[in-house]
Amino acid sequence: MGNYLLKSILKRLRIRSVFYGWWIVLACSIITTYNAGVLYYGFTAFFTPLINEFGWSRTSTSLAFGLYRLQGGLAAPVAGFLIDRLGARKMMMAGVVLVGLGFVFLSRIYSLGSFYAVFIFIAFSTSLGFNPVGNYAVANWFSRKQGIAMGILSGGISLCGFLVPLLTWIIIHWGWRTAATAAGIGMWVVGVPLAMLIKSRPEPYGLLPDGETPGNNPKLGDNGASALSQDRGEREFTASEAMHTRCFWLLSLAVLVPFIANAALFVHEMPFLLATGIPVEKAAFVVTATVLISGLGRVGFGWMADRFNKRHLMAIAIAIQSIGVMFFANIHTLWQVFPFLIFFGIGYGAINPLRTVIQSEYFGTSTFGAIQGILIGIWSVGTMLGPLLAGFFFDITGDYRKVFMMLGLVGMAGIPIMLSCKPPTLKRDVLQAARG
């Protein structure tokens, strides 16, 4: 029934000359935007109310987000394996249903242990769908236009910042438990119908990536799948082959170091601004602006990724974000927020589509989910450490400034690492060439 419905939708959309891949981008973007708004970026709105109610330290409260990232990272390789085998729609649906349930559980916690348990459950559920599934689907539906498609997919998340003031408003008027319940119900309302529209690959519907068909593009020939592979010039690595390349580990490390800073910042952004003396409503809108401006980096650098060297673009993005983190460390008044917003927002936003299109270009798409899952697992170490470091330094010193200045400087280390990450050579192709 589901496949019949999807084929009918495809037929109608093709008559209107709209490539269905763009509807995949839209559906995945809306789902990931909502999830990011209430969880990754929205957690900062819950941070202070939880401390006020339970009296937890900032380190112990930050640990929940650290556990979320660690558990999500541990589950990511398994989830990536499942995405390759079960497909995008089933995995996205599972993620949506379970994360919604996790938010309902969050509204019922009464101890630090239950708080941690719920975040571990949410972390596992998030790893099943959302960004990993969206990246997987878009990587398969687009080739020449993959950069801009990834940029739009990622760029939609920039709108999720508007959910932070909404969460803050609900928390102020009805409490954080009501806000958590509303977030869970909203996840089901938004995510379930859109997940039904997602499909893993275009080939079963007579299409090829970017909307090409074998009949209307002589370059593709009659054999769509094999000609497509030639047209892309893909290096189709298995997960094991990718992990045995120097490039895989350089890419892992280059992205890991800026991730430490951005994870710390998004957990502690509102507490930092409140400690600076900025009112809670204005602090919430700063979070909104941070995410909104990231859309410029997501879409702009995604567009450039189809035209310029992706490795160089990633090095530039890391530099811009790191400068933004150092601006953040030196905020004392509201006007000083603006240079932080420009630099951090654009740099942080740019890293997200670039890391995905670089993976696709360097390692291919045949085992995209598994390779992405392993990379996410490695990067989760950084996203776990960042919030813990910031919370620990605040508990010890009573100030965030030195730790964020340090994180900005550490992020700069990703620039030379990324520049040395050149496309790998597939060993079996080298052996075949030698035999030939």
Give the secondary structure arrangement, pairings included.
Layout: H1 2-15, H2 20-40, H3 43-54, H4 58-86, H5 88-106, H6 112-128, H7 131-141, H8 146-155, H9 163-174, H10 176-195, H11 224-232, H12 239-243, H13 246-276, H14 280-305, H15 310-329, H16 337-363, H17 368-397, H18 401-411, H19 414-419, H20 427-435
Helix pairs in contact: 2-7, 2-8, 2-10, 3-4, 3-9, 3-13, 4-5, 4-6, 4-17, 5-6, 5-7, 5-10, 7-8, 7-17, 8-14, 8-16, 9-10, 9-14, 13-14, 13-15, 13-17, 13-18, 14-16, 15-16, 15-18, 17-18
Plain-language structure description:
Residues 217-233 have low confidence and may be disordered. The N and C termini lie far apart (49 Å). The chain has helices at residues 2-15, 20-40, 43-54, 58-86, 88-106, 112-128, 131-141, 146-155, 163-174, 176-195, 224-232, 239-243, 246-276, 280-305, 310-329, 337-363, 368-397, 401-411, 414-419, 427-435. The protein has one domain (2-206, 227-423): MFS general substrate transporter like domains (Growth Hormone, Chain: A, Up-down Bundle). By secondary structure, it is mainly alpha-helical. The longest helix has 31 residues, at 246-276. The protein is 78% helix and 0% strand. α2 runs parallel beside α8, α4 runs antiparallel to α5 (88-106) and α14 (280-305) packs parallel to α16 (337-363).
